């Protein structure tokens, strides 16, 4: 359960980072903004799924975000790089958790979260290459 709450804290940090990036997205291309909004939405859905998984195990879901990635902005290359770094860190966390969880949580990580993180890494890399 501690591992799931750790993953949840990382997702809460991602939500915070993307919300902050969206608030500061002046001057960004509309297509990049749409991708960033989609990433934010996917991370919010993941927060909900991880909260359910923690509750199913009898725990109390964390409401505190991890600190990494919480200060990203969207208006420059360094900011996109920070979002990308956060996605890569999330991918490493999910890959480390893979095989250590049981039941629905294992399935969530293997079938949804790892593939999603890989997509986010690829798409943010493409945005970075366009800058």
Quick description:
The protein has 131 residues and is an all-alpha fold.
Could you describe the 3D structure shown?
This protein is mainly alpha-helical. The chain contains 4 helices and no strands. It is globular, with a radius of gyration of 15 Å. 35% of the residues are buried.
What are the low-pLDDT stretches, counting only 5+ consecutive residues below 50?
Answer: 69-74
Number of helices: 4
Shape: globular
**CATH class category name:** Mainly Alpha
Kindly report how far apart the N and C termini lie: 40 Å
Mean pLDDT: 83
Biggest beta-sheet profile: none
Order of helices and strands: HHHH
* Number of structural units classed as domains: 1
User: Into which percent range does the helicity of residues fall?
Assistant: over 70%
Q: Tell me the structural class.
A: mainly alpha
CATH architecture: Up-down Bundle
How much of the sequence lies in strands comes to under 5%
Radius of gyration: 15 Å
Q: What is the CATH superfamily classification?
A: Ferritin, core subunit, four-helix bundle
What is the count of β-strands? 0
Kindly identify the CATH topology: Ferritin
């Amino acid at each position: 359960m501690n591992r799931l709450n750790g993953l949840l804290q990382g997702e809460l940090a991602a939500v915070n980072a993307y919300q902050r990036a969206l608030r500061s997205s002046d001057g960004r291309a509309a297509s990049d903004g749409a991708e960033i909004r989609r990433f934010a939405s996917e991370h919010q859905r993941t927060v909900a799924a991880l909260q359910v998984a923690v509750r199913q195990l009898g725990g109390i879901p964390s409401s505190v975000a991890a600190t990494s990635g919480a200060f990203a902005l969207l208006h420059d290359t360094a900011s996109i790089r920070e979002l990308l770094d956060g996605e890569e860190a999330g991918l490493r966390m999910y890959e480390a958790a893979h095989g250590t969880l049981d039941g629905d949580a294992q399935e969530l990580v293997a079938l949804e979260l790892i593939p999603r993180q890989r997509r986010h890494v690829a798409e943010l890399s493409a945005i970075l290459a366009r800058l």
